[in-house]
Amino acid sequence: MRSIKSSCVVAVVLFAGLTAAPSLAGTITFSLDVTKYGKVANSGDQCGPTSTANSFAFLQNMYPDVYKDDNRIIRDKDGAITADVAKLRDALAQGWGDKTGGRKGMGTTGVQLKEWWASKVTWLEDFAPGKTRYAAQMFNETNTDGWPKKEAISPVYPTFKFMWDALNHGAAIELNLIDVPFKNGHAVSLIGMSFDDTNNDKTWNQGEKIFMKFVDPNDPNGTNADNIQPVELTYDATKGRFEFTWWQDKGRWYIDSALTETPVPGPATWLMAAMGVGLCARRRRG
């Protein structure tokens, strides 16, 4: 277990001036519907619970045929169904009650990956058992004894294919971000990626421009509300990871881990994906 936590400092800096739009020629884009996500802001050092709550809101809103009735997943600390995503955030951070006498939660002073993963899996299995598939790539996280669903975890930096495929399957995705000095962590919800397909092979290759879009709990609306702008990624081939400039401290950060949850498909879920409801995939030529 690495000791660094996703510990988020809330600032008043606006999300502006540090994003870049991809060129129009040969760009392939896939974006989930940002309006389906929660827009709850980080409260103190709770970026992990906050980004997870915002992602769970996406699952609830995007797949009402799966997370319905007794399987609704937006709840408060007592397990009561609610429309208030902030109550879900607080329960994920502080813990919640259940038949066994209570769950620990992720904590309120930053979160380590073990507690983050365990809390989100346990929450979904408490309130919507058997309705979700899990997958994660967590760099160097090799000791997962005692973790729930540990077979779903790979100890590597998140790859383009892993994140792109998860988006295309309509997954909720949380990213663990770490600054390059390896002092601070942060958590966001990944909602989209795009790349310039310069060789027309329909996949990203090193040397091609690549961008991501995310809901940031430190500024969940961005400066453009539901029109969050893309952030350019660079690939460090030596370390095998994606890096970018974060809007808040203007420093270099990298994607350390990606945690995903996808509804177990039923007929209505597959129909929704096939129709592209809430999803947008397009190829643009200039």
Features:
Cathepsin B, Chain A, alpha+beta, 286 residues, single chain
Indicate the structural class.
alpha+beta
How many DSSP helices?
5
Return the domain count.
1
Rg for CA atoms: 18 Å
List the helices and strands and how they pair.
Elements: E1 27-32, H1 47-62, H2 85-94, H3 113-127, E2 132-138, E3 153-154, H4 160-168, E4 172-179, E5 185-196, E6 210-215, E7 231-236, E8 241-245, E9 252-263, H5 267-275, E10 279-284
Parallel strand pairs: 2-3
Antiparallel strand pairs: 1-5, 1-10, 2-9, 4-5, 4-9, 5-6, 6-7, 7-8, 8-9
Offer a concise description of the structure.
The protein is α+β, with helices and mostly antiparallel strands and 286 residues long. It is built from five helices and ten strands.
Task: Explain this structure.
By secondary structure, the protein is an alpha+beta fold. The protein has a single domain (27-284), classed as Cathepsin B, Chain A. Helix content is 21%, strand content 24%. It has five helices and ten strands; from the N terminus they run βαααββαββββββαβ. It has helices at residues 47-62, 85-94, 113-127, 160-168, 267-275; strands at 27-32, 132-138, 153-154, 172-179, 185-196, 210-215, 231-236, 241-245, 252-263, 279-284. The protein has a six-stranded antiparallel barrel with strand order 4-5-6-7-8-9. Helix 1 crosses helix 2. The protein is globular. The chain starts with 26 loop residues before the first strand and ends with a strand.
